[in-house]
Amino acid sequence: MKKKVVLITAGPTKEYIDPIRFISNDSSGKMGYLLAEESKKLGDVILISGPTCLKPPKGIKFIKVISASEMFNQVKKYFNKCDVFISCAAVSDYKVKNASKDKIKKTIGKLKLELISNPDILLEVSKEKYNNKRILVGFALETNNLIKNAQNKFIKKKLDIIIANEPSTINSDRSKGAIITEDKIKKFKSISKKSLAEIIIGDIRGVLTR
Ligand code: C5P
């Protein structure tokens, strides 16, 4: 197989309320970084990561971002060059409408924050899916109806593979869930994220050589 370019997003994003506080989630970035390491077997790797405590794998292009908008800008920059896009990041769905330039002081009573939607990066790039042969891989984490919700995302975001994982996966070294393709649901019990990364990259290789 010819060398491929694999673009990966990982980690959470931070949406600042003021210079000190932010909205985010508990994503550690572990799954995305392990996928980046494993993807070296397919070719060149570009990892766009939100804030994490992890050391990026050696021998890849590493781009650090903070917010979802920054992540989207970087994805747009590299998407056309990639053969495979793995959207592993836990992107904040909302950002603060009018983030304060100064630290917000304690106020009496309520402080109301107005939140507005962030771009859905995977959904946006999937709109170009049929203009090219790019392979799209997504993740879904759900507290209810995991498989059904993941299948809906699979269709809506025109994915080749979606990994449905349970909430216990977040910030853990292990994952539990299912790998869903058009015609298969491959369930897996608690396995290490390293093993899961190996299986996912194996499945992607299968799609690439189909
Ligand atoms: O948040 P949601 O469950 O819709 O996430 C499904 C997939 O879409 C994940 O692969 C995630 O990385 C991606 N996503 C994204 N931009 C968002 C929200 C989700 O790329 N704003």
- CATH T-level fold name: Rossmann fold
Mean pLDDT: 95
Residue ranges: pLDDT <50 for 5 or more in a row? none
Ligand list: cytidine-5'-monophosphate
Q: Which term fits the overall shape?
A: globular
Q: CATH superfamily assignment?
A: CoaB-like
Structural class: alpha/beta
Roughly what fraction of the amino acids lie in strands? 25-35%
Radius of gyration: 17 Å
Give the count of structural domains.
Answer: 1
Give the proportion of residues in helices: 25-40%
What is the CA–CA distance across the termini?
11 Å
CATH architecture annotation: 3-Layer(aba) Sandwich
Strand order of the largest sheet: 5-4-1-6-9-10-11-12
**Tally of contiguous helical segments:** 5
Tell me which oligomeric state these chains represent: single chain
What is the class in the CATH system? Alpha Beta
Helix-strand pattern: EEEHEEHEEEHEHEEEH
The count of DSSP E runs of length 2 or more, i.e. the number of strands, is 12
